[in-house]
Design brief:
The chain is α+β, with helices and mostly antiparallel strands and 260 residues long. The chain has four helices and 18 strands. A hairpin with a 5-residue loop joins strand 1 and strand 2.
Length: 260
């Protein structure tokens, strides 16, 4: 598959983002608009792979599209485990139901988890020790990003979905012993992937979700922010193209809506 020259498109994305931010609501006197660089690879309808860099807001709804897996995380494919950084759009991964599905999009971002931003916010990682969720679950120690969600429910959140399966942020499993928060003071590269549908894949022996923006977060975005957000995903045309969430997703002490 060819990888077309994307410099012109990257420049156009930067210009479009700057214009949308300029025309959007002004930040308050104590607010400073922070931007971050995001790296994107996407499978286009003609089979080409688009590789672009984007400058977009350093807001949770944007960062969550990129912050699930750290470099070296092993994604299960029909040919065996592949490191997340080596996985490219057009290649396939195994889903929870045993199907082999094509990666349509991969995003990455580099941030310093232990550094506070202008709002005093950090982006902690979660270290999961081997065998925490059972034999070889995970196979060895795993470090997951702040946007990673597991197909599991800790005891303190089981009331949210009537005991039914739920996708839960890894931070909710932190117990200070086998699942701990870590805040590296140095840059960390993080990744996430999209398939045609929202589903669950095996990463280092654990069941993680593929990327989906959710419904609640999208509803809170302004029109301008939605346009900037969609610029990050060359393989879709609208938010509806992400499809429905696979199942309930926990976040901020509640369950994200399942339908738009």
């Amino acid at each position: 598959m060819a990888i077309p020259n994307s410099l012109a498109r990257a420049a156009r994305n930067a210009i479009d983002t700057s214009a949308l931010l300029r025309d959007g609501p002004r930040p308050g006197p104590q607010q400073k608009a922070q931007l971050r660089r995001y790296e994107v690879s996407a499978l286009l309808p003609n089979g080409d792979i688009s590789q672009t860099r984007h400058i977009a807001p350093a807001l949770p709804v944007f960062e969550d599209a990129f912050c699930a897996f750290t470099r070296g995380s092993l994604v299960e494919t029909e040919y065996g485990p592949v490191a997340i950084e080596d996985l490219m759009p057009g290649e396939t991964v195994l889903t929870q139901d045993g199907k082999s599905e094509t990666v349509l999009w991969k995003g990455s971002v580099t941030l310093i988890p232990g550094r506070e931003d202008s709002r005093g916010r950090t982006r902690p990682l979660t270290r999961i020790m081997s065998d925490t969720f059972g034999m070889q679950k995970p196979l060895s120690g795993v470090i997951a990003g702040p946007a990673a969600r597991l197909l599991a429910t800790p005891a303190h959140l089981r009331h949210l979905n009537g005991g039914l399966p739920m996708l839960t942020p890894v931070s909710e499993f932190q117990d200070g012993m086998s699942v701990i928060e870590t805040l590296p003071p140095t840059p960390v590269e993080l990744f996430h992937i999209c398939l045609k549908r929202h589903t669950v894949i095996s990463v280092d022996g654990l069941q993680f979700e593929t990327y989906h923006p959710g419904v609640s977060a999208v509803r809170m975005m302004s029109h301008n922010m939605r346009s900037i957000f969609l610029n990050l995903f060359a393989h879709i045309h609208s938010l509806q193209d992400f499809g429905p969430p696979l199942m309930a997703r926990a976040g901020d002490g509640e369950v994200d809506a399942l339908t738009a």
